Amino acid sequence: MNKIKRNTLKIFFGTLAFIFSKKTLANGNPYRDRFQSYRQTFRIEPNKLETERIIKNIIKDRELIKNLIRLDVPDTVEDGNVVPVTFAINCSMEENDFPKKVHVLALENPFPEVAIYEFFPKIGKAEVSFRCRMRTSSYIMIIAEMIDGSVSMEKKYVDVMLGACS
Amino acid sequence: MEKLRRLKYKKVVKKNEKIKIKTLAEHEMEPGVRRDPKTGIIYPRLIIQKVTAKYNGKIVFRANWFSGVSANPYLAFYISAQESGLLEVEWRDDYSRTSYKRGYLKVIDQQGNEILPIKYEI
Predict the structure, then answer these.
(1) Is a pLDDT exceeding 60 seen at residue A25?
(2) Would the CB atoms of B18 and A125 count as touching at under 8 Å?
(3) Are B47 and B69 in contact (CB under 8 A)?
(4) Could you name the CATH architecture of B5-34+42-108?
(5) How is domain A48-162 classified at the CATH fold level?
(6) Which residue intervals of chain A are DSSP H helices?
(7) B68, A115: Cβ pair inside 8 Å?
(8) Contact, B18 vs B79, CB < 8 A?
(9) By CB distance 3.0 to 4.6 Å, which of A23, A136, B39, B50 could disulfide with B92?
(10) Can you tell me the ipTM of this complex?
């Protein structure tokens, strides 16, 4: 009889402790933050050294070709949430002359890499237009990697009135 | 809930014509930096990572996106029309959830006959 009482009491207090611990953990910050940091794959503060490192990793000490990229961005943008970007690459889209990858970077964003576009041969034109976010007024940089290993770069300064929190 | 996906292009084109294909997806691209003003909790990141376009089963164009792309992302690119066939665009999520939009492209030659992808003789 005594044993059964002891066991029931144990189970009762155990369940109580479990429920309370769960509640306290759910209300506190660290419990929630653990899940959020799981998908938080980038830094919050922009880092200049990091952007330089990213650009270096893409270019890899190769010589830059001039007059390959045409970049159309407005000089001043009111809303940093929607910055229209169009770029075109000057090439005949044959088997040995097309851009393999085109990187779009917004320097001074917390995560400077905005997009990577992949092209395939014989698709007419290498021209893309899309919209991106910018935190502050800074350079937009486009780096194109051609299929024969050559690289070219183009950048333009954009004045942003009201920055996005990207 | 079904979200809006849009695919727009010129439906009937001539051969070797360069067509502009415009796509739009309704999606709030959560960058993972914004905080709730009351509680201060960071909204978790949720973006579209990949967009692939196929023309008659072959991959024609691919975009890899990060958190810097704006909400309700618009994307326009070009293809050159060779034969009539299926155009498919696929949007892929952070959780690799996908959504599709597809359409038919009709290509005609100078006499006005349709160029079919499968060639057969009667």
Answers:
(1) no
(2) yes
(3) yes
(4) Sandwich (2.60)
(5) Immunoglobulin-like (2.60.40)
(6) 2-27, 29-39, 48-59
(7) yes
(8) yes
(9) B50
(10) 0.91
